[in-house]
Design goal:
Oligomer: homodimer
Largest sheet of chain A: 5 strands, mixed
Helix content of chain A: 40-55%
Number of strands of chain A: 15
Structural class of chain A: alpha+beta
Largest interface: A-B, 60 and 60 residues
């Protein structure tokens, strides 16, 4: 096993940008800043223009630079004034630099674009005192200042290693699709533990809920009351009432803890690179897997966070409905490839038993005689009613037992929680099972085939880094 | 609908013994008493001989008389002395009356026999002061005295109606096979409510746990502490620390409440007669039922309460094992016909899904990496390990999925809770399913066929009295 220092040295070369990249990023930032000054400074209410984010902190991962330009407005300008100014002047800036650009909506709209092959964002914020925030991004300049005031060259390297580790394990990104770790959270974790290895070592023995307070301003009990459902609480040094880790889901935090455990006991360079797609052929015994899939087409103009909110809501909606009906849902996942979305479920079986147990009321309830009369008059009664414990029960024959047919009728009759915005797409979509061509249909496209193969293996990314060498 | 008074008048004629029966019972009791005096009175320590039970109280149901003769011993005689005396002299008594007799073991042995076609029991008890009981039957003479001191002709009729109602609903008898209402409990219920209709009306709105204290000597909280799991608590007026209803199971109490509710809303004579066996042919669609049965032969010399304790223990043992493995057990039942016992289960399916979800440890547990290594090295691994919530999961292929085969191997490997005394019988028994001849096998015998038909209908007895007229 190579020494951990050797692994980290090699990993550094994967995450540290080289001179050429640094120069390109720094020049692009300078040009943007200059054109922004030209376009924005004469506008009413603009008080400052700055570079923020990982470029301002020199903490971006090789090949992943994004230049964030923030235009600071006086509060008096108002939301609408800020938005109108950013969207029109922001677009002009990028056009003058011969870049492409488009609109994005997060908590408020901003201009996203590409200049010299580098992603740039032009964002408007209000100049606000801490605690008197107007928009969600007003804290960003304070985040930049806070992190920069504590950085050393060693910590920069370690932050890049940590981000590379998270990327390699599929855990980087606060967007809804990922539900993982934001850049700022990654930086704070390394800062608060004093380095990459220290963070990974400590995290390997975390147990949820995890609470970290760099500023020492909150007690555990207060934190648990403020953020009752959060598996990871890292209160923002710039704003103690905010949880920097709010986007991290329980599953992603658990995968992170697992990744740290595995890396600790068996470190390797592999963790710093996303695993390659499964090279294996689709297993021959896929026929024994009970897969149910829904494939549908979506409009691509929606911002990813909106779309993925809807996808995840719908994914869970079908899972809950299937379970309510009696199916055992072993696992589910969703992916998007260009405008095609696939929701995929692995079930214990693609059909339910023909007969189903009906749980009636306790005998002492007013409606117990009603249950008996109703049961006796059902043409699909198989057995009962009988009494067990304090309750009545009966067995009736199901009208429909196939998952595929049930899904069709739930969608048709609106008996399942589908995001309103996806309803039409899902209705026009295809419902497939491993008995009715799901594998063949998805294998027509190399991208879908790779994702299906990954789903079939079903191995968490951190584990894939390990077993490669088992 | 006939008037309730007409129904009760007709029911009375079903439960009140006629003159001929009264004469026969009374003469038999007299003859027994006289021969017992002859055989027992010269024995050391015998202080009294009496008739007890429903004959002494004139509360037996037509055709169901049992003459209980109690031989009262001084405590100094001791258990062994009492047993030896009762077994030898008791047998001689019945021989002298040209009856048949055999031994019975309840809490202590007694002689059971038949004289002039009437069941007789010769039981030894100790003459004990209340609260200083030596054997379990020492309270009986006090029970007889207590009930007799409160009886009127009207209450006698109502007690017989109530017992007839319980018999008609399959709820009469404190033996383990029934887990229902003893004669003494039935008498106390009618006495404490003041009549048959009053009892049924009150009971129809019972909710468990039910607590009745005729003597007013116990508070509810005390009762619930003394008898924490009893669904029905009726503390003995002769011994407040004893629950007269200890034998009543939750299911049987619930069936009783249901029977009272139905009778109240729709009274009929039907409730006073056990329902006739189902006349219907075995349903043609029995093939869609997932039945699993175990038929085995037992030695008949065991007392029924011992045997039925073992049968019920074993019945539950298999049910728990099946559920643990992933089968859904809709219902189960057991019956005994001469020396043949049948345990019968209705399942949602006779086979489990090919693949099974394995729930691993939470990621923060010490053994989480072990679970991963173990899973990856399993030749039957299908998918995983993956992370969901805080836990690891995987899917593996089952070695065996048929209920029948699993049952065989559990019995062989002693991996199921079977009563020790039934182990050999079960091992030599037949395991049958509705796919492998269960229906054909049981239909060979008219008795088994009738019970199978009843199981397949699965309708609680009180409900059968109702739907007859629906």
């Amino acid at each position: 096993m190579p020494l951990i220092t050797e692994i980290l040295a090699e990993a550094s070369s994967l995450v540290e940008p080289d001179e050429r990249e640094r120069r390109l990023v720094s020049e692009t930032a300078k040009r943007l800043l200059s054109v922004c000054r030209d376009e924005f400074q004469q506008l009413e209410g603009v008080v400052d223009i700055s570079v923020e984010g990982s470029v301002a902190k020199d903490t971006w991962v090789k090949g992943k630079a994004e230049v964030d330009i923030f235009i600071h407005f006086k509060p008096e300008v108002g939301r609408q004034g800020l938005e109108a100014a950013v969207l029109s002047a922001g677009g002009r800036v990028i056009e003058r630099l011969s870049g492409r650009h488009w609109l994005r909506y997060a908590s408020h709209p901003y201009v996203e674009g590409e200049v010299s092959g580098i992603r740039v964002n032009i964002v408007g914020c209000f100049k606000a005192e801490p605690g008197r925030w107007i928009s969600a991004v007003d804290r960003t300049p304070y985040h930049t200042a806070f992190v920069n005031s504590r950085l050393t060259p060693e910590l920069r390297r370690d932050i890049r290693l940590f981000k590379g580790f998270l990327i390699g394990c599929g855990l980087y990104g606060a967007e809804i699709r990922v539900e993982g770790f934001s850049g700022y959270l990654s930086e704070l974790l390394v800062l608060s533990h004093g380095g990459f290895l220290e963070t990974v070592r400590r995290a390997s023995s975390w147990r949820m809920p995890v609470f970290i307070d760099m500023a020492g301003r909150l007690r555990l009990e207060e934190a648990l009351k403020l953020f009752p459902k959060a598996p990871l609480i890292f209160n923002d040094p710039v704003d103690p009432s905010r949880n920097v880790a709010a986007a991290v889901s329980e599953s992603k935090l658990a995968e992170f803890i697992l990744a740290c455990k595995i890396f600790n006991s068996s470190p390797s360079l592999s963790f710093f690179q996303p695993p390659k797609p499964w090279g294996k052929e689709l297993a021959a015994d896929v026929g024994s897997r009970n897969l149910l899939g829904i494939a549908f087409t979506v409009e691509r103009r929606q911002p990813p966070d909106i779309l993925w909110g809807e996808i995840k809501h719908t994914l869970r909606g079908f899972a809950r409905r299937l379970e309510k009906e009696g199916f055992q849902v072993y696992r589910c996942d969703a992916w998007q490839l260009s405008d095609e979305v696939v929701l995929l479920y692995e079930l214990s079986s693609l059909s339910l038993p023909e007969n189903v147990l009906k749980v009636g009321p306790p005998v002492w309830m007013d409606n117990s005689l009603e249950f008996i009369e109703k049961t006796m008059s059902r043409p699909n009664r198989v057995a009962g009613p009988w009494v067990e414990g304090e309750r009545l029960y009966s067995i009736v024959r199901r009208d429909e037992s196939s998952a595929e047919q049930l899904l069709r009728s739930w969608i048709k009759r609106r008996e399942v929680a589908i995001s309103k915005e996806l309803l039409n797409s899902v209705e026009r979509g295809e419902i497939l099972t491993s008995r009715t061509g799901l594998v063949e249909r998805l294998s027509r496209d190399k991208g879908h085939e790779a994702l299906l193969r990954e789903f079939l293996e079903g191995i968490a990314t951190p584990i894939r880094h390990w077993i490669k060498r088992c």
